[in-house]
Amino acid sequence: MSELWDSIVQFWSEGGWLVLVQAVATLVVGLLVASVLGRLLARVIRGRGRQQTALVVRRLTFYLLAVIAFVSALTVLGVDLTVLLGAAGVLTVALGFAAQTSASNLISGFFLMGERPFVVGDVIRVGETTGEVISIDMMSAKLRTFDNLLVRVPNETLLKSEIINLTHFPIRRVDVMVGVAYKEDIARVRAVLEEEADAEPMCLDEPAPLFIFLGYGDSSIDIQFSVWATRENFVELRNTIKLRIKEAFDREGIEIPFPHRTLYTGSVTEPFPVRVVDEP
Amino acid sequence: MSQTPSSRTGWWGTFDLRVGAGIRWRIGPLELWALAQTGECELAYRRGDDPLDARLEMERVAAEPELPEGCELRRFAWPDPEGEVSLIPLTADRPVIVRPETPFALLGDDEAVMYVSTPVWVRVETGGEGRTLLDIPAYRPSDTWFGSPVGDGELGYASRTRARVRLDAVGFVPARAMTEVTIRNHASDTFVLERVAVPTPALRLFADMGGMLWTSAVTVEREVGGETARVRVADHPPQHATGWREVTPPREPETRNVIARALGAFLGSEKMGGAHVRTVG
């Protein structure tokens, strides 16, 4: 302890305090420059409309310049950097193994920034999660689900997964699956559906609605009727058009059958005898 | 100063609206009420299904009439007991896509004139300060997309009426404005016209001596080579609008950007799908 105290006194009396002040000044100036430069770069990038990229660049610039300032301060203090570099090399290997996932997320983030499959404000589906993108960070993206949950998705997951961007294009198609009874006139059903699409202002005239005869189902004739809407009206139209179709079918007497089975006694179509018994 | 709409003067203007009184207008398919009560003004409206409804009515009503079912209501603070409201016609706030009755071919170095009618919007403003209370279409047209579904296109309205080559075939109604579109094909090949996007936000509204509404005349010229077109928007209506006077300026300034966007998807056909266009100042 006394040796340490003697070393400190000797260091101070031999002008070591001046070196210390220089080192601290180097560090402080370096940190200031790192902060200012980071903000400037971020402002330039933000001016081009890339908010998230600006944030990442600002942080990266700051950390890089801060490391340089720290190393410079150590140099001023006369610290032998080769020893540090040696130790840093060993540490890097150890950290590298430990931080594989973080490094992967970071690098995946750069690729996502370049590719831009989505931006803040888009609604995306990743796996089973659907939500609005509220931020894209260095290591992950944050989604807000429609029931107001926050979901953090690592960038590595985003890069490896199939991402469905629900709001990338300005218009979207609403598919309505409907089954009508076999007895119905399909041409008339088609006319009714097209009339309802025509009467609904949110249904785009073009691209024109699509009528697809899907097939002869077990209980009904299956039809797909697809209409287009702007992405802003998509959710509302998805409800409105189905309500309209139901009302129109009721009005026109078009039956949407329940699933049912017809039983036959064999090749001769004599029905099973059925006797209705009143409730006691 | 109160005004009664007529087919000669038009349905627009400034109207007295005193507290304890109301006004009902019928402008084609649109039925509109303005009702002034102490401290508030209520605007109610509903629309019919017929875009070519030609009715034009105005009557003074009580401040709290029985409104029919299906009316939309808006309420505003109304401090002035001797207030006024103004009704102003405007062009549509998006381009209106109109189709000819059948696609028709324009031969090389040929020209066609078409007449299209588009629904007008009705803006309700406070009489004195000119503050907007309501800005609604007299008839709500259907949305439509003009262009590629993957983004290179524009949202517009689909007109229920067709573009016609004869003016008398289109017909005038109070709640619609007529546009004369001249299409010139300077290229040597035939151009098949299937649809026209009228850049209504960039057009002025005029009224003729009979109180019928016209917009600025529009000319589209398909240039030699066939890949470019230019559009001119006149600052006056066509010659058919006798004794015309300007009613409202365009919704959007007639900048190069506005016209270029409209032009890029102005004419629809197999050939013109991806045409580059340039404007004439």
- Listing every helix as H and every strand as E from the N terminus to the C terminus, the arrangement of chain B reads EEEEEEEEEEEEEEHEEEEEEEEHE
Largest sheet of chain B: 7 strands, mixed
Oligomer: heterodimer
Shape of chain A: elongated
Q: Strand portion of chain A, in percent?
A: 15-25%
Biggest interface, chains and residue tallies: A-B, 17 and 15 residues
Count of β-strands of chain A: 8
Mean pLDDT of chain B: 81
User: Taking Cα atoms only, what radius of gyration of chain B do you get, to the nearest Å?
Assistant: 20 Å
Give me the secondary-structure category of chain B. mainly beta
Q: SS-based structural class of chain A?
A: alpha+beta
Please tell me what the overall shape of chain B is.
elongated
- In which range does the helix fraction of chain B lie? under 10%
End-to-end Cα distance of chain B: 40 Å
Largest sheet of chain A: 5 strands, antiparallel
List the topology elements.
The complex is a heterodimer of chains A (280) and B (281).
Chain A: H1 2-13, H2 16-46, H3 51-77, H4 81-98, H5 100-115, E1 123-126, E2 129-136, E3 140-145, E4 150-154, H6 155-160, E5 163-165, E6 171-180, H7 186-199, E7 210-216, E8 221-230, H8 234-252
Helix pairs in contact in A: 2-3, 7-8
Chain B: E1 13-18, E2 21-27, E3 30-37, E4 39-47, E5 56-62, E6 72-78, E7 82-90, E8 96-98, E9 104-106, E10 110-119, E11 121-126, E12 132-137, E13 142-147, E14 153-158, H1 167-170, E15 176-185, E16 191-193, E17 195-198, E18 205-207, E19 213-215, E20 218-222, E21 229-233, E22 245-248, H2 256-264, E23 267-268
Parallel strand pairs in B: 8-14, 15-19, 15-20
Antiparallel strand pairs in B: 1-7, 2-3, 2-5, 3-4, 4-6, 7-11, 8-17, 9-16, 10-15, 11-12, 13-14, 17-23, 18-19, 18-22, 20-21
Description:
The complex is a heterodimer of chains A (280) and B (281). In chain A, helix 2 (16-46) runs antiparallel to helix 3 and helix 7 packs across helix 8. The radius of gyration of chain A is 34 Å and the shape is elongated. Chain A starts with a helix and ends in a 28-residue tail after the last helix. With 280 residues, chain A is an alpha+beta fold. Chain A has helices spanning 2-13, 16-46, 51-77, 81-98, 100-115, 155-160, 186-199, 234-252, and strands at 123-126, 129-136, 140-145, 150-154, 163-165, 171-180, 210-216, 221-230. In chain B, the strands form five sheets. In chain B, strands 10, 15, 18, 19, 20, 21 and 22 form a seven-stranded mixed sheet that branches. In chain B, 5% of the residues lie in helices and 47% in strands. With 281 residues, chain B is mainly beta. The chains are: A alpha+beta (280), B mainly beta (281). The interface between A and B is medium-sized, with 17 and 15 residues.
